[in-house]
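If your schedule permits, I should be very grateful for your opinion on a structural question. I have a record of one protein: its chain in single-letter code and its fold written as C-alpha cells. Kindly check, if you would, that the fold set down in the C-alpha cells agrees with what the sequence suggests. I remain grateful for any guidance, and I place the record below:

***
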Amino acid sequence: MTPKFSNDGTRLANTILFPVVGLVLVAIAFSVTLIIYTSRSADIAAMHSERDLLRGSTRLQLQMMAKEQEGVAVWDQAFVHSRPESLDTSWLDVNIGRWLFQNHGHERSLVIDEDRSVIYSAANGLWSRPADTAELVDQIWPLITRTRARFINGYTRLSSGMSVLERPAAGFTRSIHEMGFVALDDRPAFVSVTAIAPEVKRFVATRRPPAVLVSIKKLDANRLEALARMSGIDRLQVASPAASSSAPISDETGAYLLKNPRGQIAGRLIWRSATPGSAILSGVGPVLLLLAAAIATLTGLVLFYIRQTTRRLARSEASAQHAAMHDSLTGLANRDFFAARFRAELAEWQKTHGAIGVIYVDLDHFKDINDTLGHAAGDEVIREAARRLRILVPDNATIARISGDEFALLLPGCPGRTALEAVLKRMQSRFAVPMYIGGSHLYISLSAGAAIAPEDSLSMGELLRKADIALYAAKADGRGRWAFFEQSMEEQVRTRENLAHALRRAIDDERLHVLYQPQTTIDGRTVLSVEALLRWTDPEMGAISPSVFVPIAEETGLINDLGLYVLRQACTDARAWPHLGLAVNVSPTQFRHPRFIDDLRETLEQAGFDPARLEIEVTETVFATSSPEVMETLTRVQEMGVRVALDDFGVGYSSLSYLRRFPFNTLKIDRSFIADLEIGAHAHSILSTIIDLGEALGMKVVAEGIETAQQVAILQRTNCDKLQGFFMSRPVPPEQIRGVEDRLAAGQPVAAAGAALTISA
C-alpha cells in the first residue's frame, strides 16, 4: 500500500506541481515577455515623443525665421524696389541681404522676381552671383509657387473692378510665406520663402505675382545645439543628404528625416534616444521573485512617463495657441482670434438669425500720454482700459485689442441699438472715473463706433469697416462720445477721400494760389508786411475753403507738403517787395515735423530770402503736449533770424506760462475780440489788457479782422502796433500789392477781389 500511496502522492504532487510550475513558468515567461514588451514600448514611445518635440522645435525655428523675414518683406519700400519697373538691387543689398545676415544670421538671401529670375543673391551678407543659385531655386520652387499662389489668391475683387490685397487673417506672422528644408553645400538647411508685400491694403487694377524673398540658414553646430536645448534631446547630430539615404539606424538611435519641397532627402537628424524601458528591465530582470512588483512598477513608470510627455506636449501646444491668439500686454483676444470668433458668430447667424453688434473703441489722446508720461505709463493705461472693458461687457461678448489703443467688441445675440447703447453708456460712465497710473490720476475718455449685422452688413470686413467709420465720425464730433454707422458717414468718408486725392494732385500740379493781406500801421496808411493766405479752386468742385481742406491735409499727412508749398511760393513772391515783411502760417502738425527746421532753412536758401523779413505764425495748439521739443524748435527758429508770432491769441490755452518761457516777437489778437468792440460792454477793456500784456512782454501786437472805421478808431487809442483786415484790404494776388500800398497811402479804401471772409491756411 505504501508504494501505491507514494505513487498516488507523486501523481498528486505532479498533478498539482506541474500545473503550478507550468503556471509559474508561463507566468514568469509571460511576465518576462510583458516586461520586455513594455520596456520596448517605452523606448519606442520615448523616441516618438522626442521626435515630436524635435519636429515642433524645427517648426518653431522656421516660424521664427519667417518672422525675421517679415520685417524686410512686408514693407512698402521693399515692395517698390523689388518690382521690375523700380528695381534697385543696391537697396536690396543694404536693406535685405546685409541686414538679415548681420541681425539674424541668414547665410543666403535671394530675391526672385515674377518670371523666376534671381534679381538679387547674397551669401553671408555679400552680394553673390545669381548664376550659382539655379540648383537651389529648383529645390525650393514648390515653395515659391505656393507662396505666389497664396499672394494672388489673397486679392479680393471689388465692385469697382479693382482688387485689394488683404493681410493674412491668422498665424504667428503677418506675412505670406512657406517654409521647409533644403540641401545646401551637402548639409541640410532651413529655408523660408516670403512674398514681398506692401504694409497696408493695396488697391490694384491687375493682380500680379509678387517678388519673393528666400532666406536660408544652415543647420550648423550652434543651431543644432539650440534645437537640442529646445527639444530636450542629448547628443543630437546631423547627417548629410548622401549619408542620410544609406546610413543604417540602430534600435537605440532616433532619426528625423528632413526632405526638401520636392520630396528629396535634404538630411537627417539623429540622436541617442532615451531608453527608460531597457533601463528598468536591466534592474529588475535578475530578481524573479519580485517579477510581479517589477512589472507593476515598470507599467506605472511607463504610464507616468507617457502621461508626463503627453502633458508636456499638450501644455506646449496650448501655450503656443494661446500666444498666437491673444495679446501679450492685456491678455485679451488679438485680431486673429476676433476674426475667427466673428466668422463663427456669422455662421450661427445663418441658423438663429439673431443680430450681432460690433463696437470699435479708441482711447482719446492716448499718444499724449506716451509723449508726456512714457510708454510704461501708456502700457498701464492700456491694461486698465482692458480690465474695465472686461467688467462692463456681457459674458458672451468677445473683446480684442486690435492695435495700440484700439479695441473691438463683438456682441452676439444683440437685440438692437438699444442694447448696444446700454453697453456704450456703461463704458462712457466707467471711463469717466479717473485712472490711478504712476501715482497720478488720469482722465481718459474713449470714443466708440458701432455697427450691427445684418442691418449694416453680413460681411465681416464690411461690418468692421463701418464700425471704424462710425468711430471716425464720433472723433470728428469732439471725441468722448459714440456713434452708430449711418450711410451718410460713408458718403462723407468717400467725399473726404476724393478731396484728399484732388488736393494731392493740386499740390503736385501747383494749382493752389497764394494771396496776400496787408498788415498796416495803426493809421492804416502804410503797409508794413503781408500775410500769405492759401486758396484752392478745383476745376470740378469749385472754390474750397481752407477750413475744409486744411484739416484733411493734416489727417492724411499732406500738411507738411502743403505748408512747404505756401512757404516756397510766398518767399518767391515777396522778393518783389524787399521793404515789406512776410508772415506765413505754420500748422502745429507741420511745426512738429522732424524736418521742419531743415525744410525752413532750405526754402529760405533756395529762394534767396532774408530770414529777418520772415515771420512764422503758430497757434496756441502747438503747446498742447508741453513737449520740450516744441520749445527747442521755437528757439532754433528764432536763432535763424526768423521771427515768431503767436496767432489767434485769446481763444486757445491762453496760458501766460509759455508767454513767459518763450519771448515771441509778435502777438496776434484773435478776430473775435475785434468783432465785439462795437457790441460788447467789456470788449474794449479786454482788448486793451491784451495789448498792454503784449507791450509789457516786449512783443509787437497785431489786431486782425478789422472791418469798420469805428474799430480802427478804437484801436488808434491803444498801443496796438499793426492792423489787418478787410477794412484796409482784402487778400490780393501778388501783382496787386503795389497798388494796394499806393491807395492806402492816399487814404483810399481798397476793394480787392474776393467776397467771402478769408481764412488763413
Q: What stands out?
A: The longest strand covers residues 527-538. Residues 2-73 form the longest helix (72 residues).
